[in-house]
Design brief:
3-stranded antiparallel β-sheet, single chain, 19 helices, binds protoporphyrin IX containing FE
C-alpha cells in the first residue's frame, strides 16, 4: 500500500472503495494541488475540504465558522439526508459539537467540572480490569476479531461506567451503539432510519429516565461524593444554578457516549493494525514495555493518532460570512470540513510525515482537534488507548494478523476512519 500521491494532474476520485482503504495518496495530492477544495460529497452536499496543517488549524479556531447547522446555506429539510445534523432528534442534537458560544462556553464549563483529570485518573484501575476481562474472553481460543471482541466493547463499558449507567443495563447500550455504528451516525446527523432511529429513541428514553432517577436519589451535599458518576455531577451542577436543562443533560450524555465511543474503537483498531504492520516499531514498543518504561507508549499513542487517527474529518463547520482560507474565497453558508488525516501528514509541519515513528517528539497533531471544540475526552481516550495496546502486546506476545492487509475492509463513513473487522491469531494463553 503506497502512500505516495498519484502523479497525474487530474483530481483523484474521492469517497470510492479504494479511497476508504487508503485515502492518504489522494490527500497528498489535494494538499499540493488544491489545498482548499470544493467537492460534492456522496450525500450530494457540496463542501470545502481543507487539507493543509496551517489552514486546518486556522479554520478549527476561527469564530467566523459556526458549528450550528442553522448557518448552512442549504435547505433545512434536506439536512437529515445530507449528513448535516438536522431537525430530527433535535433535542439530542443540541450538544457541544453543534453549538457556538455563549451556549457552548456554558455547557463545556459545566461538563468540564464533571469530567476532571482526577476522575479519569481514578478510573485507570477500572479500565485495566475491563481490558483484562475482555482479553480473558478470547485468550484461550488463539484467535479473535479485535474490533468485535475488544475495541468495540471496551469504550462502551468504560463510558457507561463513567456516566453511571448501571452494569445490568450496559449490554443494552452495547446493542444500541452497535446498531448506530453499523448503520449510520445519529450523533453526527446521519439519517436515523429503521433500526437506528429505534435505537436512538430507546437510548433517549433510557437517558431521560436515568437522569430522573439519579436526580431523585442525589444526596443533598454541596460537594461531589467520592466516586460520584458523571451524570450525577451534571445534575449537581445544574441544581447549583448552572442552568442545565434536562434535555441538555441528556444531549450531553449522548454526545459523551458518541464522541467517546467510535473514536476509541478506531484508536484501538487502527493503532493495533499499524503496530502489526510495522514490526520494527512494534518490537521497539515491546522492549520498552518489557523494561518497565512508559515514555514510548505515551509518545507512541500520540503518533498512532497522527499517523492513522480515528477522526479523518473534523465535524461540520459553516461559514457565517464570506471569508478566505489559504487564499480561497468561501461564501457565507458554505460547509467547511477540515481533513485532520491530511493535515497530520503535511510535510510543511511534520518531518517524514509518512513514516510511523513511535518516539516522535515534535508532534502537535490535530487528531483531537484544536480550539474551543478540542476533544474533551482526550485524557480518557489516552488512558484507554495506552491500556489497551500495552495489555494486548504484553499478554499476547505473538499477536499477528489472520488475513492479508489487502483483505481488510475499512468503514466508508465521512467523519470516522476505522476497520470493520480485525481478525488476529496468537498462541492460546491459559
Ligand atoms: C481516540 C479517541 C478520540 C479522538 C481521536 C477524538 C477526537 C475528537 C476531535 C477531533 C474532536 C473535535 C471535533 C471538531 O472540532 O470538529 C473531539 C471533540 C469532542 N470529543 Fe473526542 N475524541 C476521542 C475520544 C473521546 C472520548 C473518550 C470522549 C468522551 C467520553 C470524547 C468527547 C468529546 C467531546 C464531548 C467533544 C466535543 C467538545 C466540544 O465541542 O467542546 N472524545 N474529539
Amino acid at each position: 500500500m503506497t502512500d505516495q500521491p498519484p502523479s497525474s494532474t487530474a483530481t483523484p476520485e474521492l469517497f470510492t472503495w479504494e479511497f476508504a482503504t487508503n485515502p492518504y495518496p489522494a490527500y497528498a495530492w489535494l494538499r499540493e494541488h488544491a489545498p482548499v477544495h470544493r467537492t460534492r460529497l456522496p450525500s450530494g452536499v457540496e463542501a470545502w475540504l481543507v487539507t493543509r496543517y496551517a489552514d486546518a488549524k486556522q479554520v478549527l479556531a476561527d469564530p467566523r465558522l459556526s458549528k450550528n447547522p442553522a448557518h448552512h446555506g442549504g435547505p433545512a429539510d434536506a439536512r437529515g439526508r445530507t449528513g448535516i445534523p438536522g431537525e430530527r432528534q433535535a433535542d439530542l442534537m443540541t450538544h457541544l459539537l453543534n453549538i457556538d458560544p455563549p451556549d457552548h462556553t456554558r455547557l463545556r464549563r459545566l461538563v468540564s467540572k464533571a469530567f476532571t483529570p482526577r476522575r479519569i485518573a481514578e478510573f485507570a484501575p477500572r479500565v485495566q480490569e475491563l481490558t483484562d476481562g475482555l482479553i480473558d474472553g478470547f485468550a484461550r481460543s488463539g484467535s479473535a476479531d479485535l474490533i468485535h471482541d475488544f475495541a468495540f466493547p471496551l469504550p462502551i463499558y468504560a463510558i457507561c461506567d463513567l456516566l453511571g449507567v448501571p452494569r445490568e443495563d450496559q449490554d443494552d447500550f452495547r446493542d444500541w451503539a452497535g446498531m448506530m455504528i453499523r448503520h449510520g451516525k445519529a450523533g453526527q446527523g446521519g439519517s436515523p432510519r429503521g433500526g437506528v432511529a429505534r435505537s436512538v429513541k430507546k437510548m433517549r428514553a433510557y437517558l431521560a429516565d436515568l437522569i430522573h432517577r439519579k436526580r431523585a436519589a442525589l444526596p443533598d451535599t454541596p460537594e461531589p461524593l467520592p466516586g460520584e458518576d458523571l451524570i450525577s455531577g451534571l445534575i449537581r451542577a445544574s441544581d447549583q444554578g448552572e442552568h442545565l436543562t434536562e434535555n441538555e443533560a441528556a444531549a450531553m450524555a449522548f454526545i459523551l457516549l458518541f464522541a467517546g465511543f467510535e473514536t476509541t474503537v478506531n484508536l484501538i483498531g487502527n493503532g493495533t493494525y499499524a503496530l502489526l504492520t510495522h514490526p520494527g516499531q512494534r518490537a521497539r514498543l515491546e522492549s520498552s514495555l518489557a523494561a518497565g518504561e512508559r515514555g514510548l507508549l505515551d509518545t507512541g499513542v500520540e503518533e498512532l493518532l497522527r499517523y492513522d487517527g480515528p477522526v479523518e474529518l473534523a465535524t461540520w463547520r459553516f461559514a457565517t460570512r464570506a471569508l478566505s482560507v489559504g487564499g480561497q474565497e468561501i461564501a457565507a453558508g458554505d460547509p467547511v470540513l477540515v481533513v485532520l488525516a491530511a493535515a497530520d501528514r503535511d510535510p510543511e509541519r511534520f518531518a517524514d510525515p509518512e513514516v510511523l515513528d513511535l518516539g516522535r517528539r515534535d508532534n502537535q497533531h490535530l487528531g483531537y482537534g484544536h480550539g474551543i471544540h478540542y476533544c474533551l475526552g482526550a485524557p480518557l481516550a489516552r488512558l484507554e488507548g495506552r491500556t489497551a495496546l500495552a495489555t494486548l502486546l504484553t499478554r499476547l506476545p505473538d499477536l499477528r494478523l489472520a488475513v492479508e492487509p489487502a483483505d481488510l475492509r475499512w468503514r466508508g463513513g465521512l467523519i470516522m476512519r476505522g476497520l470493520r473487522t480485525l481478525p488476529v491469531e496468537f498462541t492460546p494463553v491459559p
